[in-house]
């Protein structure tokens, strides 16, 4: 079960109502034309909550287009004023708007505009991404893909992450179902509801971020000061999952996640990670020696030796020795054979099949994150 | 991609950077529109008052036209003084919390206020009511989250959580939904770290200046012209310059138009020049090379079109302008003359405050109380809000049709005037 172990995913989240024709009388450039296509409401009482930030946020998605170009497509995400949340606009909405306003890159979902409509609702005009997400592709047994495809997807992910870090933004929730796919096959980093800018040195940040399976050891150990290395670890996990087609480290709890990391890569100790024993939640049960290069070669034969090297550099336990997003981009794997697949040749999700899968997903596997649903909505729209 | 390109994609550059004249024009336009609305609102209030008084109905007051002309509105300059006062108050408010709110949060709140009042007038929305909300929104956007309740408790007086949060959406609209503010603080810290490394002989020479070595840089920093105040060591000197610059960035840089006119790095470098000119110039030289020696120019023609030296000349001009702006600032509270003029402005505002915008809480908690007949005219300066409000009122009047027995009769009545 993919229990999303943190905050802004609330059990009482009701994502849009399955109603019809919500017409926005929007004054801004984009105008809604289509129907409000509903994402299904999810309720998952098993989700752990560490803070209640996002109770009962009602969101609606609408398909729209630019007034001067009816063939264009945008997704309009409506954030309703939350009557339950008394402290004004919620944190995840603020984070999302704040960072997407600043980040403009091919591999980061574009926020075209924000406008207000009646009753003080906030409407985000987002890039239309009808291609689903990487998780759908990974899970779809009918889709076959090779290392060239993985290289293309990882390349796009790495460029998006590098750009965020270059702008001093930590994403803090990288996982396959936050990596959306555009109509032309381009991968876009989405869901900035947990993003924040780098803290100044010595200032604390919360360690309760990143979905558990993709969470690096320093956060599991409760580090309050961390860097872009947290996102690089998540990228490494996505890389491994793309190769294996199952999550590499699917811990059942935070403790289980730590032991899975130890089993896979070795136990963090003062020798391989100076200072690790000083972290607040440092625990180990058994001492597993640090895994060497041969482990990665054995475990990920499809990546080839150079690819295994790259993956290994992203999965270094000590965040200070882990590769940075820039170092990832500079790795020689990208220029080694095989070349990354061209976007137009990348495997796509198949429409009808995909939609069924989507509905059959277990609640726990689902992310209720905003863009996730935006993307799903687009599937439904295509089916009409 | 260079840093400048990245900065140009920021909302601070795209939406919140101006030239001196465009800034002035924008403020004048805002002031004009707001003044007209204030006059119109006061006229409507008087008409309502007259029609409510039986003796006055049907007999137009001969003096009313003259009276209307006497509504004296604030000038753009007066508005600016008022906003600045509340920016200074924001710093004080941040100090009342235990622990005090971080500098970044306060600076963000101040810039929110300054941005908001580019397109909104204090005559429409009193800064007193916007100030607390701006500070609260800044705690949310700058990762210093506290609950609204504990935030409101920290405000002296009897401000309720509802008072704080009421103008939130309005404020966010005024900010055009951009929450990111690029401050000069981080750049200063980086520069100070570089200088400290140089002083310890660990400086990293710029790759385009091969003549520099860690040793030559260290020698250079140790042999600078003396600082404005005597110091015991180079570490002491850097520390003092750091502190003095930071103070300028916390005060003058916040209270003037610096953020609208200059980039964060221009602002901190200008403040650094004020704090310790020789040290700041040395720092620039480590990046741009020193000034061109006129004798060398005769012998070596290549230096004639040295792009770095052209850049240096241009940059020093900009930094000089920015430094002059920062130095023009004196805190209102420390200057009796300014305080006197502020009191006059506050008094004047009392008479030209838009009466229809006084209770902001109506907008969120009880919007139905808004008189629908004023829908077309009573709006803020921002076009989006105008349209949003219009839609809201249309919807309300529709809803009211069935529910509120007092609503429907009054509305057509009032529009007839």
TrEMBL record, chain A:
Q: Which organism is it from?
A: Penicillium subrubescens
Member of which family? Belongs to the protein kinase superfamily. CMGC Ser/Thr protein kinase family. CDC2/CDKX subfamily.
Report the InterPro entries cross-referenced here: CDK, Kinase-like_dom_sf, Prot_kinase_dom, Ser/Thr_kinase_AS
What would be one Gene Ontology cellular-component term for the protein?
Answer: cytoplasm
What is this protein identified as? Serine/threonine-protein kinase KIN28
> Per the UniProt record, which residue ranges are transmembrane?
none
Give any Pfam family that matches. Answer: Pkinase
UniProt xrefs under PANTHER family = CELL DIVISION PROTEIN KINASE, CYCLIN-DEPENDENT KINASE 7
SMART domains recorded: S_TKc
Name the domain of life.
Eukaryota
Q: Which GO terms describe its molecular function?
A: ATP binding; cyclin-dependent protein serine/threonine kinase activity; RNA polymerase II CTD heptapeptide repeat kinase activity
According to its UniProt entry, the protein's GO biological process terms are: positive regulation of transcription elongation by RNA polymerase II
Domain Protein kinase, by residue range, is 47-334
From TrEMBL, chain B:
Q: Name one GO molecular function term.
A: cyclin-dependent protein serine/threonine kinase regulator activity
Question: Single Gene Ontology BP term?
Answer: regulation of transcription by RNA polymerase II
Which residue range or ranges hold the Cyclin-like domain? Answer: 80-173
Which intervals carry biased composition (Basic and acidic residues)?
A: 383-403
Write the record's keywords in alphabetical order, separated by commas: Cyclin, Repressor
Q: Which InterPro entries match?
A: Cyclin-like_dom (IPR013763), Cyclin-like_sf (IPR036915), Cyclin/Ssn8 (IPR043198), Cyclin_C_2 (IPR031658), Cyclin_N (IPR006671)
Ranges where the record places region Disordered: 44-68, 363-417
Q: Biased-composition ranges for Polar residues?
A: 53-62
Query: A Pfam family name for this chain?
Result: Cyclin_C_2
Protein family according to the UniProt entry: Belongs to the cyclin family. Cyclin C subfamily.
Subunit structure of this chain's protein: Component of the SRB8-11 complex, a regulatory module of the Mediator complex.
Tell me the function of this protein.
Component of the SRB8-11 complex. The SRB8-11 complex is a regulatory module of the Mediator complex which is itself involved in regulation of basal and activated RNA polymerase II-dependent transcription. The SRB8-11 complex may be involved in the transcriptional repression of a subset of genes regulated by Mediator. It may inhibit the association of the Mediator complex with RNA polymerase II to form the holoenzyme complex. The SRB8-11 complex phosphorylates the C-terminal domain (CTD) of the largest subunit of RNA polymerase II.
- The identity of this protein, by name, is RNA polymerase II holoenzyme cyclin-like subunit
């Amino acid at each position: 079960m993919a229990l999303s172990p943190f905050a802004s995913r609330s059990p009482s989240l009701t994502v849009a109502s399955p109603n019809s024709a919500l017409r926005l009388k929007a004054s801004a450039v984009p105008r809604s034309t289509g129907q409000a296509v509903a994402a299904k409401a999810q309720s998952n009482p098993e989700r752990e909550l560490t803070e209640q930030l996002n109770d009962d946020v009602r969101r609606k998605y609408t398909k729209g287009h630019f007034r001067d170009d009816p063939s264009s497509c945008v997704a309009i995400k409506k954030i309703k004023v939350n009557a339950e949340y008394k402290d004004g606009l919620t944190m995840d909405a603020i984070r999302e708007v704040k960072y997407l306003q600043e980040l403009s890159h091919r591999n980061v979902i574009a926020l075209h505009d924000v406008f207000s409509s009646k009753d003080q609702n906030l409407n985000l005009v987002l890039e239309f991404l009808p291609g689903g997400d990487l998780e759908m592709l990974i899970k779809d047994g009918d889709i076959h893909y090779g290392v060239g495809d993985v290289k293309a997807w990882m390349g796009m992910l790495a460029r998006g992450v590098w750009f965020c870090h270059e702008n001093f933004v930590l994403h803090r929730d990288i996982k396959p179902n936050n990596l959306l796919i555009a109509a032309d096959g381009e991968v876009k980093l989405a869901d900035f509801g947990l993003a924040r800018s780098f803290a100044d040195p010595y200032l604390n940040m919360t360690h309760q971020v990143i979905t558990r399976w993709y969470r690096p050891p320093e956060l599991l150990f409760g580090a309050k000061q961390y860097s872009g290395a947290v996102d690089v670890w998540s990228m490494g996990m996505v890389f491994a999952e793309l190769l294996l087609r199952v999550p590499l480290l699917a811990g059942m709890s935070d403790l289980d996640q730590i032991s899975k990391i130890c089993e896979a890569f070795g136990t963090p100790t003062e020798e391989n990670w100076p200072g690790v024993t000083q972290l607040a939640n440092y625990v180990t049960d058994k001492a597993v020696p640090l895994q060497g290069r041969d482990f990665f070669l054995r475990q990920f034969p499809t990546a080839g030796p150079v690819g295994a090297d790259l993956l290994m550099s992203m999965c270094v336990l000590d965040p200070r020795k882990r590769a940075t997003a820039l170092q990832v981009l500079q790795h020689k794997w990208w220029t080694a054979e095989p070349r990354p697949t061209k976007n137009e040749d990348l495997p796509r999700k198949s429409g009808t099949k995909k939609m069924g899968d989507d509905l059959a997903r277990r609640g726990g596997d689902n992310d209720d994150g905003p863009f996730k649903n935006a993307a799903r909505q687009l599937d439904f729209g295509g089916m009409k | 991609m260079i840093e400048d390109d990245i900065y140009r994609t920021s909302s601070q550059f795209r939406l919140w950077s101006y030239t001196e004249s465009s800034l002035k024009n924008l403020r004048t336009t805002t002031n004009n529109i707001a003044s007209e609305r204030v006059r119109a609102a006061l006229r409507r209030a008087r008409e309502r008052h007259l029609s409510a008084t039986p003796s006055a109905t049907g007999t137009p007051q001969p003096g009313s036209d003259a009276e209307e002309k006497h509504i004296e509105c604030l000038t753009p300059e007066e508005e600016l003084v008022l906003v600045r006062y509340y920016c200074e108050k924001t710093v004080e408010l941040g100090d009342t919390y235990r622990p005090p709110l971080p500098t970044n949060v306060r600076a963000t709140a101040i810039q929110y206020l300054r941005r908001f009042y580019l397109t909104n007038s204090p005559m429409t929305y009193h800064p007193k009511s916007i100030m607390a909300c701006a500070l609260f929104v800044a705690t949310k956007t700058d990762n210093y989250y506290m609950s609204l309740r504990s935030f409101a408790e920290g405000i002296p007086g009897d401000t309720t959580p509802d008072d704080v949060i009421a103008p939130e959406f309005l404020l966010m609209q005024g900010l055009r939904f951009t929450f990111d503010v690029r401050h000069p603080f981080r750049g200063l810290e980086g520069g100070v770290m570089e200088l400290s490394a140089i002083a310890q002989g660990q400086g990293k020479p710029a790759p385009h200046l091969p003549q520099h070595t860690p040793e030559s840089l260290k020698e250079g920093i140790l042999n600078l012209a003396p600082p404005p105040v005597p110091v015991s060591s180079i570490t002491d000197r850097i520390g003092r310059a750091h502190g003095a610059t930071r103070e300028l960035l916390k005060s003058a840089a916040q209270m003037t138009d610096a953020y609208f006119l200059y980039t964060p790095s221009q602002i901190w470098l200008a403040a650094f020049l004020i704090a310790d000119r020789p040290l700041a110039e040395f720092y620039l030289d480590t990046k741009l090379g020193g000034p061109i020696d006129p004798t060398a120019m005769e012998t070596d023609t290549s230096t004639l079109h040295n792009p770095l030296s052209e850049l240096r000349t241009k940059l020093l001009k900009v930094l000089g302008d920015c430094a002059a702006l920062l130095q023009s600032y004196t805190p209102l509270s420390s200057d009796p003359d300014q305080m006197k003029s502020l009191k006059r402005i506050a008094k004047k505002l009392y008479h030209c405050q838009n009466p229809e915008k006084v209770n902001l809480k109506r907008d969120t908690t009880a919007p139905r109380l808004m008189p629908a007949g004023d829908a077309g005219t009573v709006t803020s300066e921002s076009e989006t809000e105008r349209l949003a409000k219009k839609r809201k009122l249309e919807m309300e009047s529709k809803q009211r049709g069935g529910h509120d027995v007092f609503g429907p009769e009054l509305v057509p009545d009032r529009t007839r005037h």
